[in-house]
């Protein structure tokens, strides 16, 4: 089983964006030490160590997305397939001679190009990945509805395009691991409240556990939390390992990308450490 780390640089209540980025850097160093990944800056400097992931979602609320796309020359989502084809051509330095950008080269060039992944949580994203012969990463941490069917459809419709001879899939999973199940569930409560507020259109930092535990949830909010919790893997190392192996089997993948979010950064780091130990990842000095 191959494990990788996805970090979204979450901002904790009382923290700052600068602190969130600093914690991401510290986590990257820890992930490298724990045996998750080789963390490098550029494919040109370290061939084979960079993945390029793209997706259709803007990764923000609609108002922020509109601000980022402001202007008269923005492209609608209907242009996404053409943008994929163009990006792949840029990476391979293979734009058609009659293309308006022919002669423009993606720099810097090296011995190889980043491994190309299409990220998504829908059958449409899987269809694009299959059509263009790309690797596909399904965001199970965003939604688990129909996920295994989406991955199966990607494999069935995959068209080899030269870079990949066969389909290559992985899934992104939310994980929190602690010494006891009770401790893990307690840590997860802060993300429960943060995610609930996000679903309600309320953007804000990750709240502390005490605030989450003291919050008076309505019946509908508890139902929503239970719905979000079903696609999360939270518990002791042995429990987490068993559930992740089962998920990988269900999706028929051999790589999991783990994202862990909680209020306490030390607990987040410890979660990755316990997970690495559970899977017996080889530590690096």
- Low-pLDDT stretches are 39-45
Strand content: 5-15%
Overall mean pLDDT: 84
- Roughly how many Å is the radius of gyration? 20 Å
Shape: globular
**How many runs of DSSP E, i.e. beta strands?**
7
Class by SSE composition: alpha/beta
User: What is the number of helices?
Assistant: 10
| Share of helical residues | 40-55%
- N→C terminal distance: 21 Å
**What is the makeup of the main sheet?**
7 strands, parallel
Succession of helices and strands: EHEHHEHEHEHHHEHEH
Structure overview:
The protein has helices at 17-34, 62-68, 80-92, 123-132, 147-157, 181-199, 209-214, 219-229, 237-251, 265-278; strands spanning 2-5, 51-54, 115-120, 135-139, 169-177, 232-235, 255-259. It is α/β, with parallel strands linked by helices and 285 residues long. Strands 1, 2, 3, 4, 5, 6 and 7 form a 7-stranded parallel beta sheet that branches. Helix 5 links the parallel strand 4 and strand 5 (169-177). The radius of gyration is 20 Å and the shape is globular. 27% of the residues are buried.
Keywords summarizing the entry:
alpha/beta, seven-stranded parallel β-sheet, 285 residues
Any chance you could write out the topology, listing elements then pairs?
Blueprint: E1 2-5, H1 17-34, E2 51-54, H2 62-68, H3 80-92, E3 115-120, H4 123-132, E4 135-139, H5 147-157, E5 169-177, H6 181-199, H7 209-214, H8 219-229, E6 232-235, H9 237-251, E7 255-259, H10 265-278
Parallel strand pairs: 1-7, 2-3, 3-4, 4-5, 5-6, 5-7
Helix pairs in contact: 1-10, 4-5, 6-8, 9-10
């Amino acid at each position: 089983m191959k494990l990788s780390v996805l970090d979204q640089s979450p901002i904790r209540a009382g923290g700052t964006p600068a602190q969130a980025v600093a914690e991401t850097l510290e986590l990257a160093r820890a992930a490298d030490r724990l045996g998750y990944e080789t963390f490098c800056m550029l494919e040109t400097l370290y061939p084979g160590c960079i993945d390029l992931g793209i997706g259709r979602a803007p990764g923000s609320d609609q108002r922020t997305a509109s601000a980022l796309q402001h202007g008269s020359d923005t492209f609608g989502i209907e242009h996404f397939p053409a943008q994929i084809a163009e990006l792949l051509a840029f990476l391979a330095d293979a734009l058609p001679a009659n293309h308006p950008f022919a002669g423009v080269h993606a720099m810097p060039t090296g011995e190889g190009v980043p491994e190309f992944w299409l990220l998504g949580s829908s059958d449409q994203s899987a269809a694009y990945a299959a059509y263009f012969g790309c690797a596909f990463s399904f965001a199970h941490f965003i939604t688990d509805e129909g996920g295994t069917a989406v991955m199966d459809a990607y494999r069935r419709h995959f068209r080899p395009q030269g870079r990949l001879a066969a389909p290559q899939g992985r899934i992104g999973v939310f994980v929190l691991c602690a010494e006891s199940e009770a401790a893990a569930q307690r840590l997860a409560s802060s993300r429960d409240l943060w995610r609930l507020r996000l679903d309600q259109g309320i953007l804000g930092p990750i709240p502390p556990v005490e605030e989450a535990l003291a919050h008076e949830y309505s019946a509908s909010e508890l139902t929503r939390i239970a719905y979000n919790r079903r696609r999360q893997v939270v518990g002791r190392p042995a429990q987490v390992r068993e559930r992740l192996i089962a998920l990988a089997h269900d999706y028929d993948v051999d790589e999991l990308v783990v994202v862990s979010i909680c209020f306490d950064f030390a607990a987040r780091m410890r979660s990755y450490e316990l997970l690495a130990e559970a899977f017996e990842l080889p530590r690096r000095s």
